[in-house]
Amino acid sequence: MPPVTAIDAGLRRGPFQVGDRVQLTDPKGRMHTITLEAGKEFHTHRGFLRHNDLIGAPDGSTTTNTAGTQYLAIRPLLADYVMSMPRGAAVVYPKDAGQIVTMGDIFPGAVVVEAGVGSGALSMSLLRAVGESGRVLSFERRADFATIAQANARAFFGADHPAWTVTVGDLVESLPSVVGPASVDRVILDMLAPWECLGVVGEALLPGGVLICYVATATQLSRVAEAMRDHGGFTEPHAWESIVRDWHLEGLAVRPQHRMHGHTGFLITSRRLAPGVTPPLRKRRPGKGYVTDLDGEAEWDAEDIGERVPSDKRVRKVARSMGETSRRLP
Ligand SMILES: C[S@@+](CC[C@H](N)C(=O)[O-])C[C@H]1O[C@@H](n2cnc3c(N)ncnc32)[C@H](O)[C@@H]1O
Questions:
Q1: 191 in contact with ligand 1, CB cutoff 6 A
Q2: I want to staple 274 with a disulfide (CB 3.0 to 4.6 A). Which of 40, 207, 260, 314 is the partner?
Q3: In angstroms, rounded to a whole number, what is the distance separating the alpha carbons of residues 13 and 262?
Q4: Are residues 177 and 47 both part of a single domain?
Q5: What pLDDT, on a 0 to 100 scale, did the predictor assign at position 314?
Q6: What are the tens digits of pLDDT across the range 15-31?
Q7: What predicted TM-score, i.e. pTM, was given to this entire model?
Q8: Considering 59, 76, 93, which residue would you say is the last residue of a domain?
Q9: Domain tRNA (adenine(58)-N(1))-methyltransferase catalytic subunit TRM61 C-terminal: where (predicted)?
Q10: Is the CB–ligand 1 distance for residue 139 below 6 Å?
């Protein structure tokens, strides 16, 4: 096989070397991540182990500390790394990063815009998906967060990823000076107010390009969906969430874990229409009382939230049938 030159491939294979991150798991399942240094020791309240004992050992080895505690030593995967790396802002969890890469159709060679960068968790999944021939153009308005994200990615890839550019600034102000109109394949927004960015994002996306927003609350989801519709240049949005339930596997006790992450965020996606094209009318219209003005003063009723209100005739019919049922009861 020809030698692999991809940026992080060299760090993921072969015996442990100085500078490698190694995940140690003790018999109780407690994890620690260390970076191997010649002559260094890893101490816990019960004994220590020498890094030198791991340097040169194969990935997936065990080692024992001075108190006789055995550790499994293995290289962390990207999913392990993002959960343990230093954080500025909250990260996109691996389960959602997987959804974004697949449902956002992030392909090798793609030009992807991402904002904000936060701690860089999602950026790393995007960089892996586009590869060295693609571009991830990330925007972050906080310089301190951008610095943390770049340090995290550098530690993971072992060098600055050649496909990555981080611009410090607000996306709305910075995007038009970084990319030309209709030049971007995919846009991922993970921020408080993605609806504020739809104008510049609509300009930057190629026809057919994908926009994905990741939001934490249902109120944000609703607002960004309405903003996509109001923009007029996007297809009807599609929203979803993913729920992952880990399983306990112990002898005959094979069942879901008692604890889980009940909520991380919602995803909403849409495609950019060609210039001048208006979205086809939806076949299923919203209910007649459906309110799109979320700032409106009016009190909400069932129709405002798209609930079907039964006609008086239907309610009378149900009531009549219940009366007949109760009459038949002894
Ligand atoms: C939840 S964090 C992003 C986390 C990141 N996706 C990760 O996986 O580590 C949201 C970030 O968006 C940034 N942000 C919010 N609005 C922005 C905007 N209009 N332009 C650029 N960055 C923005 C915030 O400063 C914050 O760092």
A1: yes
A2: 207
A3: 35
A4: no
A5: 84
A6: 999 999 999 999 999 99
A7: 0.88
A8: 76
A9: 83-248
A10: yes
Residues 100, 179, single domain; the answer is yes
Q: Is the CB of 145 under 6 A from ligand 1?
A: yes
4 Cβ neighbours under 8 A, 6+ residues apart: 10
Q: What is the pLDDT of residues 152-200, one digit of tens each?
A: 999 999 999 999 999 999 999 999 999 999 999 999 999 999 999 999 9
Q: What is the pLDDT of residues 33-91, one digit of tens each?
A: 999 999 999 999 989 999 999 999 999 999 999 999 999 999 999 999 999 898 888 99
Instruction: Please tell me the distance between residue 97's alpha carbon and the centre of ligand 1 in angstroms.
Output: 15
How far is the centre of ligand 1, averaged over its atoms, from the C-alpha of 182 (Å)?
23
The residue count for the chain: 330
State the distance from the centre of ligand 1 to the C-alpha of 300, rounded, in angstroms.
32
Contacting residues for 95 by C-beta, under 8 A, at least 6 apart = 242, 244, 264
Domain boundaries, position 13: 9-76
120 and 184 co-located in one domain? yes
- Distance in Å, CA 136 to ligand 1 centroid: 15
With respect to residue 276, please indicate whether it lies within any of the assigned structural domains: no
The protein residue with its alpha carbon nearest to ligand 1, atom 4, reads 118
My answer on whether 111 and 133 are in the same domain is: yes
The answer on 244 and 225 residing in a single domain is yes
Protein residue closest via CA to atom 26 of ligand 1: 118
Cβ of residue 87 lying under 6 Å from some atom of ligand 1: no
Residues 6 or more apart from 15 whose CB is under 8 A from it?
Answer: 56, 57, 58, 59
Same domain? For 86 and 21 the reply is: no
